[in-house]
From TrEMBL:
Residues 1-26 form the signal peptide. Keywords: Signal. This is Lysine-specific metallo-endopeptidase domain-containing protein.
Length: 309
């Protein structure tokens, strides 16, 4: 479906702003934000994508999130923002946001939209200075980045279940299988072709991914996927006290496809009447999209072909 002229003009304005920014080497690097898988494509490594590509993607992502937050803040002053928030978030058009006292439900909805963006920006800018002090909310040890799904090894639902240290999970001294674990039963029963994949062979991230169609994730034109990895302990398969790991996989197609422009300058040059929105979004938007999953959960913004447990 082609984008309508209004949304296209709004997007054009944003792209024009971002295309004027010199996306050069920034002080912040992708390895500051994520635990990045090393190595080549055969083990999901990002060595060939790191410098400058992923660092440039990070810079573009931060600029786009900043522009989006600034636009949301200008709701009362800019009619195009009001129409955009209706189109993208079903946020009813009114002349003003209003106040928390006048319309608490509307204000909370607006604030939630803004906060969702701000939290993703907080992850990507790796801002360790929090208001009022406290621990950093998004330590990179909890956020992994891979550049292919080839680091995963295929398993059977009847394979022995392994814990977060790679040890067999036992109950009453008896090894139990993946499908016998309550923590994984829902994922296995969800689709008839679902298959578990183990991440501990090529990484230190010992956990399971569950592919709904049974295949490795990076197939065809898949751009990426994000999974929440639950850490289970050996005795009984109970969850450990450590927080879940958000694991982001960027597929080769996200980097190598010829449909999406390489950057915001190229995206701006592609804008024209009846262009499809997905055809003018620069490649770095895949990183932004998966970052939303990483922060807000793997079902947030999820489509039918990228859900995992």
């Amino acid at each position: 479906m082609a984008t309508n002229s209004f949304l296209l003009s709004l997007l054009a304005g944003i792209l024009l702003l971002l295309s004027s920014i010199n996306v050069a080497r920034a002080d912040l690097e992708i390895t500051d934000v994520f635990t990045v898988q090393t190595g080549g494509d055969s083990t999901g490594g990002c060595d060939a994508r790191l410098n400058p590509l992923l660092d440039d993607w990070l810079t573009e992502s931060l600029f786009s999130l900043t522009a989006a937050i600034d636009a949301v803040d200008a709701y009362d002053r800019r009619f195009e923002v009001r129409y955009a928030m209706l189109a993208f978030f079903s946020f009813e058009i009114q002349d003003t946001i209003g106040t928390q006292q006048e319309n608490p439900t509307r204000y909370r909805t607006w604030n939630k939209i803004r906060q969702n963006m701000a939290e993703v920006k907080n992850l990507l800018e790796h801002d360790t200075v929090l208001p009022g002090g406290g621990d950093f909310k998004f330590p990179k040890e909890r956020f992994w980045l891979h550049c292919h799904s080839t680091f995963l090894t295929e398993q059977s639902s009847t394979s022995p279940a392994l814990d977060y240290e790679g040890k067999e999970i036992k109950k009453d001294d008896k090894t139990i299988t993946i499908q016998e674990l309550d923590a994984y039963q829902k994922a296995i029963d969800k689709e008839p072709n679902v298959k578990p994949w183990w991440s501990g062979t090529n990484t230190d991230q010992n956990g399971y991914y569950f592919s709904e169609d049974g295949r490795n994730y990076c197939q065809g034109d898949h751009l990426g996927v994000t999974a929440s990895i639950k850490l289970l302990q050996a005795e009984g398969g109970q969850a450990v006290t450590k927080p879940e790991i958000a694991s982001v996989i960027l597929c080769p197609y996200a980097f190598d496809n010829t449909r999406n422009p390489d950057n915001y300058r190229d995206a701006n040059a592609k804008l024209k009447k009846d262009v499809r929105l997905e055809d003018v979004l620069p490649k770095s938007t895949t990183l932004v999209h998966e970052a939303f999953h990483a922060v807000h959960g793997d079902k947030f913004l999820a489509g039918s072909d990228e859900k995992c447990a």
